[in-house]
Amino acid sequence: MVAIVGMGCSKFGDHWGKSADDLLIDAVEEAKTSAGVVIDDVDAFWIGTAVSGRSGLTLSAPLKIRNKPITRVENMCATGSEAVRNACYAVASGAYDVVMAVGVEKLKDSNMTGLVIPSSPTDGTTADLTAPAMFSFLVPAYMAKFGVSQDQMREVLSHIASKNHSNGAKNPRAHFQRAVSVETISKAQKIAGALNIYDCSGISDGAAAAIICRAEDAHKYTKTPMYVRALSLAVGSGTGAIDPDYDYTTFPEVVASANAAYAQAGITNPATQISMAEVHDCFTPTELVLMEDLGFSERGNGWKDVLAGRFDSDGVLPVNPDGGLKSFGHPIGASGLRMLFEMWLQFRGEAGARQIPKPKFGLTHNLGGQPGECVSFVSIVSNSPE
Q1: Checking CA distances to 223, which of 172, 250, 349, 384 falls within 20 to 30 Å?
Q2: Contact criterion met (CB below 8 Å) for 279 and 294
Q3: Does the annotation count 77 as an active-site position?
Q4: pTM for this prediction
Q5: What is the number of other CB atoms lying within 10 angstroms of the CB of residue 129?
């Protein structure tokens, strides 16, 4: 088993006066300080970024790291989680004693928004859709399958957005720190299908970092380590759009990655055993579907649980207590690590006004791609190795 013994996270937002290098330095310095290490104590590094750097030089240049192994990784919006996964496995394998995973993205002054990757050449018949358009397909599909009316669905999606904005208002590092009412959200301008501006996550700049070692060495660095109980990545075949059995009410990759993570961590009933979750709420219907794919709600009942407040900050299973992608923001390479940073604060009792009482298991979920064609990462962390 491995443990996270230091973490750092920059404030997310429109950092017109900071570069990707500046954001990296902010996150890494905080992580180093929390673990009581210097950069030479770290044996190897993984840097996750989609568009803000090439090769390990993305990290070595600003941090002045000389002649150490640094690997740059990318896995769409799950890039930050991919950096963590590789770093953890490197320690677990015995290859290194202490490693660092870092994620960064600088989007706001780069003329780029959302997931910016070159499209693969096709025969021209593939639909060219925006991300909001692709995820908007979830809404009519869910309504039709589970008998949810248009008004009910609007209330559900607005509740999710309002919840995450309310949580972000309590988070000084979040991009958007203002509570927004369900009424205001429901009346906002539509941009794709049933989705309006408040149904979409923010485009942000930011960085986050984690220092990882073997569990048995964790107390050398901190009195309150966070133990990694499960890591799971599932990559689909990318055939959803042409698969007649795919109905846009689930992400099969999420189900697979979640089930593998639960098996690793010994979780048999996630709805009752998971204390808190950070999930990939790139769009509000994504969070709704994830509640069922992750086993937090029964199939077809997720919308009822949302309206009942089950996933609110004072609910049975708080989801996105830091504001999620919706309010904290979504710098692609940093988001997966940011989710773990919230778990880090919660387990240490340092989450302030959004602190969850006595959490035991935390889950992070990071998604990349689109419905029917995506990658999914799930981690389970705890303040106990047992």
Answers
A1: 172
A2: yes
A3: yes
A4: 0.96
A5: 13
